[in-house]
Amino acid sequence: MGLIQEIQSLIYKEILLEWRQRYALNGMLLYIVSTVLICYMSFNLRGSAMNPPTWNTVYWIILLFTSVNAVAKSFMQERYGRFIYYYTLVSPQGIILSKIVYNSLLMLLLALVGYGFYSLMLSNPVQDHLLFLCSILLGAIGFSTTLTMVSGIASKAGNNSVLMAILSFPVIIPMLLMLMKVSKNAMDGLDRASSSDEILTLLAINAIVVSLSYVLFPYLWRS
Amino acid sequence: MKLAWWKILCIVLLVYTVIGGLLLSVPRLPILNESIRNLYFHVPMWFGMLAIMFMSVVYSIRYLQKSDPKLDDFAVSAAHTGILFGLLGLATGMAWARYTWGDWWVNDPKLNGAAIGMLIYSAYVVLRNSLEDEQQRARISAIYNIFAFSTLVPLLFILPRLTDSLHPGNGGNPGFSSYDLDNKMRLVFYPAVIGWMLLGVWITQVSYRVKAWQRRREEVGTTKAVVHSR
């Protein structure tokens, strides 16, 4: 079985599993919706509207916490015995790449739903919508690539959610800062050429993280 | 007591750094004044930290290839030394920032990068403590070490160059070397960098030896217990 075919069938399996036990997906959607609601209520309580930089920052922080929670379960959900079964069937590279792709899709869905609801509740000061959506796409992919590998590491250390957070936050900060900058440019409607540096760096970081996961995951898998 | 040549070199260079760094003449610059001497202590800390963390990553990679617990011991010792150097670098940098920029901490990409680097290696230590099995601990922390270091590198070297900064060496601010690091200062600065790096390697080696000794004592202890129980 080729690697591509392997990844395809593994992604199909992930989606099927998610669809059969919908509580996890619904739980994540509810998580992001209720977080947005909390932000709406607490900012309204102050009696003043959010200024655009705060709007941007709060959105990305909500997204960061949602993604940590959503991706953390990617290795926790699986029962121990099932891993041994996979071990006999597929290559570790297939597993990690399929998880990355699947988590990216999941994060993209969550980020878009979150974005829609967030702009509904807290208005939408974005001027360049295409660039903002592009930053959301990059963010979803970037967060899920980094977090998938970290959740693999954390799952070996007893699925500790605190561990997941402390291991992933420092690694994800450069990405987060870059994303905030791109989306800030999109909000201000700046010329797109001014954010090309950040976008290229983000793509480069993503490439580094994916290739590292590809190389390192087999070692993690073996233990 | 016999010391290897590089340890003697380390002592000589550091004694020279302290004496020469405090007594030799330095250029008179506004704002910086005499605090410019901190260059001999603050900057080499970061060079030392990066060099030692790089060493730690190299040993982690070698551990994944060979699965020898000694390599893992060395990687951990190096990471600990790196954290020590990072903390000292932060302390010297903060004191320097207080007297030149007027605040203990300024929002600056390089400073934040340093803080994140510290967070990563603290997480590394916590991860190690959370794993019970020795082999698994070594393997998983080696994986995290490689993973985190590779994402730290763009953070420390690319990100600061994209943004404006008070810190010399980025965002339009030229590095010290281009105009204020004159030849007299180079005379102390380069030996200082080498001296502090050697000190880092030395500390790492000592802490590695302590670990190796503990491991052997444990082994001897268990064999003794087995012999007694018979």
From TrEMBL, chain A:
InterPro entries, per the entry: Cyt_c_biogenesis_CcmB (IPR003544)
Primary subcellular site in the record, as a coarse category: membrane
Domain of life the protein comes from: Bacteria
Transmembrane segments annotated in the record for this chain: 23-43, 58-76, 96-118, 130-150, 162-179, 199-221
Location of the protein in the cell: Membrane
Pfam families linked to this entry: CcmB
Record's keyword terms, sorted: Membrane, Transmembrane, Transmembrane helix
UniProt record similarity statement: Belongs to the CcmB/CycW/HelB family.
Name by which UniProt lists this protein: Heme exporter protein CcmB
Lineage: Bacteria, Pseudomonadati, Bacteroidota, Cytophagia, Cytophagales
TrEMBL record, chain B:
Chief location bin: membrane
Domain Cytochrome c assembly protein: 34-155
Keyword terms, alphabetized: Cytochrome c-type biogenesis, Membrane, Transmembrane, Transmembrane helix
Subcellular location field: Membrane
Domain of life: Bacteria
Membrane topology: Multi-pass membrane protein
Ranges annotated as spanning the membrane: 5-26, 46-64, 76-99, 111-131, 143-162, 187-208
Signal peptide extent: none
Pfam families: Cytochrom_C_asm
Transmembrane helix found in the keyword field: yes
PANTHER family listed in its UniProt record: CYTOCHROME B_B6 PROTEIN-RELATED (PTHR30071:SF1), HEME EXPORTER PROTEIN C (PTHR30071)
Reported function: Required for the export of heme to the periplasm for the biogenesis of c-type cytochromes.
Family recorded in the similarity comment: Belongs to the CcmC/CycZ/HelC family.
Protein name stated in the entry: Heme exporter protein C
Annotated source species: Rhodocytophaga aerolata
